[in-house]
Amino acid sequence: MKKSVVLFLMMMVCLSGCSVPQIGSPSGIGVMFDGNPVIFDSSVVHMGTVVGQILSREWGNGVTRVSITLDGQYEDLKKANMAAVVKNGRLHLNAFSGYGAPMPPDACICGFVNTASYRWFKLKHLINNVTMAADRRAQRLLALSGLAG
């Protein structure tokens, strides 16, 4: 009897610090892709430097939402002028222009599955404001996916 009580108490003490990770949590910055990006590495890169990590990946209605987080010293990269491009299996952050407004907490950025689609998007919106077009595209993909949250 004493043995079972002691084992039960030890098990409760050991399990009290454990928590189940939330898979598919929409926390972090949402990056919306039209299609399924081929990402092998979980790091996020900006100008050759690893600036963050991929948290989760969700798919719905042909749209993929990749949630990323940035390291503390790179939090200032959270601007509305950012886009994400998949190059060689890694997620790269690119800026459309030199200055961008701070990103609202629930906003998402536009993602491109390859460099060619990113360049085509920039060329197509050369006359219009590329940053505004990217925001509209990300919002459209978010609404289409049904992964808002």
The main pleated sheet reads as:
7 strands, mixed, barrel
Global mean pLDDT: 79
The helical percent reads 25-40%
Low-confidence parts, pLDDT < 50 over ≥5 residues? 15-26
The separation of the N and C termini measures 49 Å
Query: Rg from C-alpha positions?
Result: 20 Å
Task: Specify the structural class.
Answer: alpha/beta
> Based on CA inertia axes, which overall geometry fits?
globular
Q: For the largest beta sheet, what order do the strands appear in spatially?
A: 1-4-3-2-6-5-7
Discrete helix count: 3
Strand content: 25-35%
Total tally of structural domains: 1
Order of helices and strands: HEEEEEEEHH
* Strand segment tally: 7
Element layout with pairings:
Layout: H1 2-16, E1 29-34, E2 43-46, E3 49-60, E4 63-70, E5 82-87, E6 90-95, E7 108-112, H2 115-124, H3 130-145
Parallel strand pairs: 1-7, 2-6, 5-7
Antiparallel strand pairs: 1-4, 2-3, 3-4, 5-6
